[in-house]
Amino acid sequence: MELAFIVNPISGKRLKGPQRVDLVRAFADSEKLDAVVWPTERPGHAPELAKQALAAGAKRIVAVGGDGTINEIGRVIVGTNCEFGLVPMGSGNGLARHIGIPLGFNKALRLAASGSAIKVDTGEADGRPFFNVMGIGFDAEVGRRFNETEGRGLLNYMKEGWKAFRGYRSLNCSIETSSGTKALNAYIVAVANSSQYGSNAFIAPDASMTDGKLNLVAISEPNFLSFFILIWRMFSKKLYYSPRVTPICSDSFTLSMKSGGFFHVDGEIFRCGEKLTVKACPKSLRIVAMAC
Ligand SMILES: Nc1ncnc2c1ncn2[C@@H]1O[C@H](COP(=O)(O)OP(=O)(O)OP(=O)(O)O)[C@@H](O)[C@H]1O
C-alpha cells in the first residue's frame, strides 16, 4: 500500500458524512491509486489508523479533515520517513492555508496524492507535538469553549471569543529563552509554527516552517476597543504593530506561571503545571506543500 487517506467525516462544514468518504474512494479508484481510504469513527481514532497505515508500509498518509485531525495524524508521522498530505476540510484550516494547499476538495486531493513533500519544522509543548499553533491564557480558554460547542467556523469561534473576553483576566508569566528571561502580564501567549490560527487570522505573520524556530506572540490585556483593533490587526497581518504585542522568535521557550492551567495544541486542550516547555523540532515532518 502506497497511500492511506484518513478521512474525518464530521470536520468543517462542507461535504460532511459518508459522501466525503465516498468522494475520496471515487478519486482513489479513478486515479488507480494503490490506496486505502479509512473513515474515522470517533475522536482519537485517527492516530490508531495512522499507526495501522505506518505498520502496513504506507509511504504517504493523507489527512482529510481540520487542524485537529491533522494533529492526530501528524503526531504519529512526525519523525518518520512517511510523507504527510493534507486535504483541508476543517473550519479554519490554518496549517493548510500557511503551506499553500488549495481549499477546493478536488484540487487538494490531487495535490495530496501526487505533490512533492518537503521537510518542515514542527513544535512540541510539554512533549505534545503541534504543527500549527499552541497557546495558553485566553487562547486556550476560547479553544476550550469552542470545542464544547456544536457550531464550527470563524463566526462561532469569534462568538466564543467574545463570551470568554468578558470574564477572562490576564496571567503573570515569565518566558525564558536562550537569550534571557522576560516577565509579562499576558492575556494570550501563543507559540506559532505556522503564521495563522486559520481563516486568515494571522497570529505570527512572519512565521516560517523551515527556519528551525518558533514564534512566540504575547498579547497584553486589551480593553473593549483594543480587543476589536487586535482582531482587525490579525486579519490584516499587522498584529506586530500593536503596542500590546510582544513577539519573540526562538528555538525553545520555558513558560513559568504562578499556577497550572490549560494549554492548547492545534486547538486541543490539555492541563499543564506551573512550567511549560515549548520547543521547535527542526525539519521533523515531510509534508506536501506549495509554500512554507
Ligand atoms: N467520526 C467522528 N465522530 C466524532 N468526532 C470525530 C470523528 N472523527 C474524528 N473526530 C474528532 O473530530 C474533532 C474535530 O476535527 P477537526 O479539528 O479536524 O475539525 P474542525 O474542528 O471542524 O476543524 P478545525 O480544527 O480546522 O477548526 C477531532 O478532535 C477528532 O478527534
UniProtKB/TrEMBL annotation:
The keyword Magnesium applies. Residues 1-129 form the DAGKc domain. SUPFAM superfamilies: NAD kinase/diacylglycerol kinase-like. One of its GO terms (biological process) is phospholipid biosynthetic process. Keywords: ATP-binding, Kinase, Lipid biosynthesis, Lipid metabolism, Magnesium, Metal-binding, Nucleotide-binding, Phospholipid biosynthesis, Phospholipid metabolism, Transferase. It comes from the Bacteria. This is YegS/Rv2252/BmrU family lipid kinase. It comes from Pelagicoccus albus.
